[in-house]
Amino acid sequence: MAQVFGVCLLPATGEFAYDTHPAQGARWNPTGGVFGTGAVETLAPINCFYAPGGAKSDYSYAIDQLQAAHPECQTVALVVAWFGNSTDAASCQIYPSTTYIKGAFASWTGSTWVVANWQCSALTQASTGLIPISQTGGSFSYGGTPSDQSVVRCIQDLKARGLRVVFYPFILMDCVGKPWRGRIGVSSDVSSAATAAVNAFLGSASTGQFTRDATNLTVAYSGSPTDFSYRRMILHYANLCVVAGGVDLFLIGSELRGLEAIRGPSWTKAGTTDGGGFAVWDYPFVAGLIQLAADVRTIFDGAGLTKNLTTWENLISYSADWSTWNGVQHSGANGQWPHLDRLFASANIDLVSFDNYLPLSDWTTGAGGLDVLHWGDAAPTTWPPSSGAMHGLGLSGTPILHSEAYLQANIEGGEGFNWYYRDSNNLGRGLDPLGSGQYVSLPEGDRASQARNPFYADQQLLGRKQFRWWWKNAHQAVYDASDGLGWAPHGPTTQWAAKSKPLIFVEYGFATVDRCTNQPNVFFDPKSTESFSPFWSAWDSADGASFLPRRDDLLAALGLQTIYDYWTGGKNETSASGVPMILTPFCCAWNWDARPFPTFPLNASAWGDGGNWAAGNWIGGKGPYLSIPTADAPPGAGSYALFPALMGQGWSFHYSPRFSTRAVAKVSGRETRAGIMASPLWDIDLTFNFLRSDANAELQAMIAFLLAHAGQAAPFLFAPPGGLGVASGAALGTGDGATRAFVVSRAIGGYSERVQALTGAPTVYQNGVAVSASLYSVSILPATIAFTAAPATGVPLTIDFSAAHVARFVDDDLDFEEFVTNVWAAKTLKLETVRG
Length: 836
Description:
Helix content: 10-25%
Largest sheet: 9 strands, mixed
Mean pLDDT: 88
Strand content: 25-35%
Distance between the termini: 17 Å
Radius of gyration: 29 Å
């Protein structure tokens, strides 16, 4: 399973989704659709679907799963959403809301249920003036804002578990098209009206208007209850984090690209200089963020939560979008301005953060394109590289997209480092222009023809991947000043001081779709105008009309592992004063969900976004990622999901081995036989009494699994039923003082068969005593135990394990509807094992 530094915790919404306490909720049911009439429905569980009736919430199970699957994870970024209702900064309101307006809640105290209102910034579900969350087809577009109480308990629980906590306030746009928050902007740029629009968006909330309530785990606001503004949101949560005892890092926002780029009336290419002679430009929202960071610092310092740059606690940052973190370009201005340098250099911003969705590949359909042609060419050694040398990757072996060496070469190389595309919009799904016959996500412009453009001397500021140069150097704006130099550095340097603060990636990650590393920033969500899959990625059609992005769990996992390995493998650096270039503990993969797998995504009656899980950036429940294929292995060869454990269906099974031999007839009539298979393949017939389609969702789980794993190119793990794959005290081998690696086998009568794969963590014994897991590593596919030190001569080695086969469906060449009908009517599934 891919390793991560930290994770961003979703779903960002759900009134008690993050609560450690089980909760119940009841919505108001209007009579005849008239909201002023009606009554409250019966209370029902809203955050304990994984273990209904228990005393433990879904969130608690989900974090248990996180820590079990990723013991290396150091940080959780807690994402908490308010809503925005317009992309016009002048009229956009930023507000909390609930899907239980006029409803009721109860919370489990450990012994009894007590009334517990949803509370957020002096609002409850009974407050007047709440802006309702939109609905489509009778279902809410989003869950409600997490309650203050649940947020506080979540922060405290994460810290008690030994995790760092990033508080991440988030904006979900609840307006037509459900656009990205980075679209909020103005139509009248470089004007006093633009500045007024920014000020309206920020609002006038002040630090003195908030009162912390440590008893009720909330924060009161003395301003107007319907003052729905950005400053109110940020200052509310700064105070709420104080109630929770503090966090390691507090973000004052993220990816507000359109607002950052708004220019006030005094903006010019050259800008002005401050008292220190540094270049500054009129970007009113950037100035607003600087003030907001100062206000948050005042709140933290006043509560005794002073910054600690040794232990990295009580810090503040803003996380920019990857596309503009190092500067913004303005239409017609012919240049790029480091508009955020003033913010990143300010005294109250402690880390330079951006959400890193920069591409790690440029792999077309067909043969793969230019990266295949230049796979073995020498990589550039100087910058900027020449037009002829800029394509070189310096790699060996057969070119393959699923290669960590290839992806690593593009972290500080390739697009955005050695070359760039001038225009590369994603046009959405269409027939592949390169003739594959597939439907793919079509690029346009330079990217469609792979017409790469070189950078020129002193243009490092333009390179989105030039983190190292950016961190180590002073910056100037790069623009055409009509002096014959073209796009070149001009004017004084900005306020940024080289090597003064670390960089972090508060978000990074990949959707589990084909060619996800080509364009990591896109996602599939049919309800959003922002829904795309990556450039050149394939789409599959189940019925000739309904298209879905093709899955590739392995590439997504490989991308995560590549980033982890690169920045922990000697590529990072530290200043003479001890400031790291990349502060990896605060880099968080998007995303882990507070709704535990497999309850999410299967419980469609509880959550409406489960359909986005398969192609989304969710980490939990995908894989396990068992091995990384070599250049000779087919794509997807190392990514196997576990056949779902469908409880209650009364399985019976027929389990038969299949060998193969080669027989040669002699002239005498005798035959000689040679075994082709050292171990058998297995034919498996599974028969069941029923599959439920109620809340247990067994039928839905099976259909989803069939869709994801039909075809021999998509094998999966099958754990034999009836305990056939479970072994206790199985012989692993005997130490000889030299051998470190031992193959795991299972005994079937007197026959010993190599185990194809493991599910779960095995327990290994020497002389009957359990060995610490730190003293050996586990290769899950094929199943092998490798000790860090060879066991002594004569020491017996045994193992407890759960085995699995690598299998595929036998009948999935049938029409999908016919296949599902057979499953439902005949109540049988036929599987066959394959070589892993």
